[in-house]
Write a structure and sequence with these properties.
mainly beta; Tachylectin-2, Chain A; 5-stranded antiparallel sheet; 2 helices; 22 strands; 7% helix; globular
Length: 315
């Protein structure tokens, strides 16, 4: 029954977008994705520091004339990981506000830490999607969500967490771990894009799938077309009526899909870990900006911070 419902969902989405695909040519990506100019700007508040890493920046959201971003605060290679946050009046000069969400209580699915945030604002409620794990074992990662009425919190975990779990079937492509939620609202449904792989596979074998729900807290149902494309520390966003995505550290390829499911190559854009400003709708499709990982060396050791990036597509 579950697979039949998902098949109906896939067919319905394909019908909705058939007119735009016909106008552009079946599954032909927008031409502006073929060329991109990239610039980066340091952020003093998020510069690399000794003793901890900042990484996995979320998308950037705008609320009451301030931009907000969330990120993983990582001490001693995931021995203590929490989600921190910051805000800015102009997107260039930022304040770091410290912890937003910490690991769950002992014995829960996210007791060992929370990482890789993504934020959605819906009907005045903030939804903070995150990856949690237990037993100090990153292979146990599943996906959860917490809600708040303010971007500064306090955050309340959804009682139905985790909203998406690893497949219990070892042979399935998403049985090893889940991570990196990217959540888009399309065609009246919530599309949760996520990465996964089997136990024993490496980052370079990580792939991206999607699950859909009628509400931002689920229940989410996996798409029968999964997996969709390769990716690790990936980013997906609305673009030209479809969905565009970069693969992160897996490859420099940029993908696009008119229906958000059947992705094809659209260009090249090398990234490590990025979070885009996500206004309502497509925004300006030729200019995207956000926060990305910045690597440095302090006391002879790699240290990660965050900086701003700007992408300008087209000729």
């Amino acid at each position: 029954m579950r697979r039949s419902r998902l098949l109906v969902l896939v067919v319905a989405v394909a019908v909705v977008h058939s007119a735009s695909r016909a106008a552009r040519g079946a599954d032909q990506p927008p031409a502006d994705l073929a060329r991109v100019a990239v610039t980066s700007t340091p952020i003093t508040a998020f510069a690399p520091r000794a003793g901890f890493d900042r990484h996995d920046p979320s998308n950037v959201v705008l609320w009451e004339n301030r931009f907000w971003v969330y990120y993983t605060h990582n001490v001693d290679d995931h021995r203590h990981v929490t989600i921190h946050h910051g805000s800015s009046a102009d997107g260039l000069h930022w304040e770091d506000h410290g912890p937003a969400l910490e690991g769950g209580v002992a014995g829960t699915w996210d007791e060992s830490g929370v990482i890789a945030p993504y934020v959605v604002i819906h009907d005045g409620t903030f939804h903070l999607y995150y990856t949690g794990f237990r037993g100090s074992d990153l292979a146990t990662r599943d996906l959860g969500v917490a809600t708040a009425t303010s971007p500064a919190g306090p955050w309340t975990r959804h009682p139905g967490n985790p909203v998406l779990r690893r497949s219990p079937q070892a042979a399935d492509w998403d049985s090893g771990m889940l991570g990196d939620s990217n959540v888009l609202h399309r065609d009246g449904r919530w599309w949760l894009y996520y990465k996964s792989r089997r136990d024993g596979e490496t980052n370079l074998q990580t792939r991206i799938g999607v699950a859909a729900a009628a509400a931002p807290t689920g229940p989410f149902r996996r798409c029968v077309e999964n997996p969709l494309f390769p990716g690790h520390a990936f980013t997906a966003w609305p673009h030209a009526g479809g969905v565009a995505a970069v693969c992160g550290v897996v490859s420099p390829k940029l993908f696009w899909a008119a229906d958000g499911i059947r992705f094809g190559e659209a260009g090249t854009l090398a990234t490590e870990s990025t979070g885009l400003f996500t206004p309502d709708g497509d925004g300006d499709p030729r200019h995207r900006w956000g926060i990305e990982v910045e690597s440095g060396v302090i006391d002879g050791r790699r240290a990660r911070g965050l900086r701003r990036f700007d992408w300008r597509f087209g000729p």
